[in-house]
Design brief:
The structure holds two protein chains of two kinds. By secondary structure, chain A is of the alpha/beta class. Chain A has one domain (40-192, 249-406): Alkaline Phosphatase, subunit A. Chain A contains eleven helices and 13 strands. In chain A, strand 4 (92-93) and strand 5 form a beta hairpin. The longest helix of chain A has 19 residues, at 296-314. Residues 1-35 of chain A have low confidence and may be disordered. Chain B is mainly α. Among the domains of chain B are: 1-31, no CATH class; 192-283, no CATH class; 286-338; 346-479, no CATH class. Chain B is 55% helix and 3% strand. Chain B has 25 helices and six strands. Chain B has helices spanning 5-17, 26-31, 46-55, 61-70, 72-79, 88-94, 112-129, 133-145, 155-170, 175-183, 186-191, 205-214, 224-233, 272-283, 286-300, 307-319, 324-334, 346-356, 365-374, 391-394, 399-409, 420-427, 431-440, 446-456, 461-474, and strands at 237-239, 248-250, 260-262, 265-267, 360-361, 416-417. In chain B, the strands form three sheets. In chain B, strands 1-2 form a two-stranded antiparallel sheet. Chain B has a two-stranded antiparallel sheet with strand order 3-4. Classes of the chains: A alpha/beta, B mainly alpha. At the A-B interface, helix 1, helix 4, helix 6 and helix 7 of A face helix 12, helix 13, helix 19, helix 20 and helix 21 of B.
């Protein structure tokens, strides 16, 4: 088989939107002229995906629900006024009905400043309860598996020309770009900025880079990615990541997640053209030993809370131009299982953090936890589609009017989670 | 280099007589046949090169002679019968990894880090040095399909047993046997929490992945209720503790004794046999046939196959009662028109580079680090879907590949050595084009090779060879197979 045929197959199989997305067929999918709109770039968007289906009920706890306590005899977090529990083990009340898991204490300042907005009972229509199918559909932003193969963030980038030539317009933290980032616009995975260079003798390194420039010339996806990687090498070289110091109030957790957020903050402050960053926090599939105030989940929440709080503090000067989204593929069963854990459920939650969120309020219509209010085998119902939240993010904060390109065949409802302008 | 059994024994005898055998002794190297390009590498047709690139971890000099001599179809047939291929050389490479020979009951007493390191080393050494290449590719395939991360609970030692007794035992055998072994594997029961699945409040994790990932596939026709009912059948499937830790056991006290309803069938109370009868049903289910067929096609043939190929392959699966060997034989020999390019996964890229260039590696931590940086640490994929097999997943992370290329060519990777002199000698008077033929199966496009050589400029002969090697390993062409 000839190389040109190889390339053709690659484009067909992985870099071209699926059949049905006819508008994309006219141009080679990666060409910038695909753009449908031109606009000033909006906020820097940070998308945090909690992989494994995070248990919403133990993140923003509905302590006003009797059923929460009856269904979770060992996993429930004690009511804010429960005299039998130590103060540090009780829910931190937010509005008389919901409260933080105690491990989210670091997020209290952001809540009090009105910059944090949870959206409860949020999720997708998919009922497979399969992590992999649910993540796939959610990150592509589609309901129908035959819809566009690209990710929703990539379609946002493809449908909005911000005139930003930066190779760091969109970055996936980690060893591979997140599914939501994949698609026609080349996007680079960045594991560690301080390690993003070739190693060894300086002269050899330069010769190798020159050689790579000569090799990665073509206009196919791999060629473009190679060119972009070389430009990122150039850009990052001038950043001196090893000398970066976060603001004093910002204490990032010493974890992969914390390091990822720190690097995002560094890129934002360096003003290198970052528009979207995606970062993952995995391990939320807590069938076993989920625990209440101790256990896997409390540890993960500590990482999440401390990380978000650090990012928020570190980027204090950028709040008006920053939106952080936290999401997960679905929620977990209301009733706990025999192994101090929970099985796959349905509704979950999202968090929005930033200077333009309508904060200090738990959004979303609460469907209740009584038996007849539950969905399927005993799960929290979904009352807000995740695409409603992301549509407000894209429309109001990223200046992208092409919502039907980003979320095809979906008409988003406007709830007012965010302010425009 | 091939050794006859007699030659092998003679050399082995010599070594056994010596007082010490170190990993760098010349006899060791000769015996274990670092398959280095000593006398140059024979020419090879484009198709044969592609077959080797896809069905092995990368063409050695020996592979090139073999496939050219036998014809590609006979080469595939031979590979499908791995027991007939002498593989002493790789066994010799593996000899220092004591855990591979330890009794399964003693593995829990090992140091965790050491045991995991040996498991990872063994996998890489086998990919680089085994002559049973298609078998090793199938071992990787099933290790993904029945993914288990060594970082969960006791899986750090249980996976070592699973690797031997489940994956390697059945990689080219019958799917039903493989599925049965996996379901009874303590590593799997721990990894997917079934050891904590009790009648009082079942844990659905394993039951769901058993149908979604291991057999029927997510759209294979099961419901949430089937998941919950199968989980009830699987209550009491657990792992022995204390002295017998690491062995499968069925605990009737934890088992749900009521009848169940799975996939439209009433399951009468029968203890352990309830789930076993469903395993048999799942193993031969048409949805399973399609699911496994689609994944095999994706791995070996095409990421966008025709419906006909999927259907034919699934039919072979059903007609042969899930004979993995028979399905592969039909798929690989009958479908050459559908072969289309794939981006190498990190395993393919790293093992391929080492194997093709005849590197001498011990597979230890420094080289494993690169796999981690590229996102495919051995036995470390956290979620039960296994490392992805999609070109667009792996394409976005070029830098660590470039770094590996440069570090390997400069001999900067601990425990791994390239014999540059041998490569230079074998490449003869036209080193760049010859190395290009070695790594890419063809000469690099003249425009690109001129560009690369101009960029390298006038440097010493050795530096030029190193940068050429690094450039070719890092080039777009070497990212495909």
């Amino acid at each position: 088989m000839k190389r040109s045929e190889f390339m053709h197959v690659l484009r067909e199989s992985c870099c071209e939107p699926a059949a049905g997305d006819r508008a994309h067929r006219i141009w080679p999918a990666w060409m910038p002229r695909l753009a449908f709109s031109e606009a000033q770039r909006g906020d820097t968007l940070v998308v945090i995906f909690l992989r494994g289906a995070a248990d919403a009920l133990n993140i923003i706890v509905p302590h006003g629900e009797a059923a929460y306590y009856s269904q979770r005899p060992t996993l429930a977090i004690a009511r804010p006024d429960d005299p039998r529990a130590k103060a540090a083990d009780r829910v931190m009340d937010l509005d008389g009905f919901f409260g933080f898991h105690p491990a989210l204490r670091p997020l209290l300042p952001a809540w009090q400043q009105g910059q944090l907005a949870p959206i409860h009972a949020c999720g997708a229509p998919d009922e497979s309860r399969s992590h992999f199918k649910a993540m796939e559909l959610m990150e592509r932003g589609v309901e129908d598996p035959a819809g566009p193969a690209s990710g929703w963030i990539n379609r946002h980038l493809a449908s909005l020309d911000t005139g930003n030539p930066s190779p760091l317009r969109a970055v996936g933290l980690g060893e591979a770009a997140q599914r939501s980032l994949q698609g026609a616009i080349p996007v680079t995975a960045l594991r560690s900025i301080s390690e993003f260079h070739l190693a060894g003798d300086r002269r050899i390194e330069q010769l190798m880079q020159a050689g790579l420039s000569a090799l990665y010339r073509s206009e196919d996806p791999l060629g473009l990615l190679g060119q972009e990687t070389l430009r990122i090498l150039d850009t990052l070289e001038r950043l001196h990541p090893e000398s970066y110091r976060p603001r004093q109030a910002a204490v990032y957790p010493n974890t992969e997640f914390g390091l990822g957020l720190l690097q995002i903050a560094m890129l934002v402050k360096a003003e290198v053209g970052l528009e979207v960053a995606a970062v993952d926090l995995g391990g939320w599939d807590t069938h076993f030993a989920q625990g209440a105030n101790e256990g896997y989940m409390a540890e993960l929440l500590g990482d999440l809370g401390q990380g978000l709080a650090a990012l928020h503090a570190d980027l204090a000067d950028f709040h008006s131009r920053l939106t952080v989204v936290v999401m997960t593929e679905f929620g977990r069963r209301v009733q706990e299982n025999a192994s101090l854990g929970t099985d796959h459920g349905h509704g979950s939650l999202m968090l929005l953090l930033g200077g333009n969120v309508v904060g200090n309020k738990v959004h979303g219509r609460w469907p209740g936890l009584d038996r007849e209010q539950l969905f399927g085998p005993g799960d929290l119902a979904v009352t807000t589609d995740y695409r409603d939240v992301l549509s407000e993010v894209c429309g109001l904060r990223l200046n992208n009017p092409s919502l039907s390109q980003i979320f095809p065949n979906y008409r988003p409802q406007r709830f007012g989670f965010l302010r425009g302008g | 280099m091939t050794l006859s059994r007699r030659e092998f024994l003679r050399l082995a005898g010599l070594i056994a007589g010596g007082a010490t055998v170190s990993a760098c002794s010349p006899i060791y190297r000769q015996l274990s046949s670092a398959p280095g390009p000593v006398a140059g590498w024979p020419p090879i047709s484009t198709w044969d090169f592609q077959v080797l690139s896809r069905l092995s971890y990368g063409p050695t000099e020996q592979d090139r002679s073999d496939i050219t001599g036998l014809g590609w179809k006979s080469w595939v047939e031979l590979q499908l019968d791995p027991e007939s291929i002498d593989d002493q050389a790789v066994n010799w490479r593996l000899r220092s990894l004591d855990s591979l020979r330890s009794d399964p009951d003693t593995l829990a007493d090992w140091d965790k880090e050491v045991l995991i390191a040996e498991l990872q080393q063994a996998a890489l050494l086998r990919r680089v040095y085994s002559r049973r290449q298609l078998y090793e590719r199938m071992v990787e395939f099933w290790s993904d399909h029945f993914n288990i991360s060594v970082w969960k609970g006791d899986c750090w030692f249980l996976k070592a047993i699973d690797d031997r007794e489940v994956i390697r035992q059945h990689a080219l055998g019958d799917f039903r046997e493989l599925l049965w072994a996996s379901a009874h594997s303590p590593a799997m029961l721990v990894y997917l929490d079934n050891q904590a699945n009790e009648s009082a409040a079942p844990n659905e994790n394993y039951a769901r992945e058993l149908m979604e990932l291991h057999t029927l596939g997510v759209d294979g026709g099961y419901s949430q209720s089937d998941v919950m009912e199968l989980a009830r059948c699987l209550t009491g499937w657990t792992v022995k503790r204390h002295f017998w830790q690491g062995q499968f056991t069925f605990n009737p006290d934890l088992h749900d004794q009521e009848p169940k309803q799975v996939l439209g069938r009433r399951v009468e109370p029968a203890g352990q046999q309830e789930a076993e009868s469903i395993l048999d049903e799942l193993a031969f289910h048409p949805s399973t046939a399609r699911h496994v067929a689609t994944k095999l096609i994706r791995r070996f043939v095409s990421e966008a196959p025709s419906e006909q190929l999927v259907e034919d392959t699934a039919q072979t699966f059903l007609a042969t009662n899930g004979s993995i060997r028979a399905v592969l034989e039909k798929l690989l020999l009958d479908a050459p028109t559908e072969w289309s390019a794939k981006v190498k996964r990190p395993n393919d890229f790293i093992a391929g580079g080492l194997r093709t260039l005849g590197a001498d590696t011990d597979g230890s931590r420094p080289v494993q680090e690169y796999l981690g940086q590229m996102g495919q640490p051995a036995f470390g994929w956290p979620t039960p879907d296994g490392a992805p097999d999609r070109s667009d997943y792996w394409i976005n992370n070029l830098l660590p590949r470039w770094r590996f290329a440069l570090d390997l060519a400069q001999n900067q990777i601990g425990g791994t050595t390239l014999d540059l002199k041998r490569i230079a000698t074998a490449a003869g008077g036209e080193p760049f084009n010859r190395v290009s033929e070695l790594l890419l199966g063809t000469r690099l496009d003249p425009e690109l090779s001129t560009g690369l050589l101009e960029a390298i400029g006038s440097v010493g002969e050795q530096t030029q060879l190193q940068l050429s090697l690094a450039g070719l390993l890092a080039s777009p062409g070497f990212q495909w197979h």
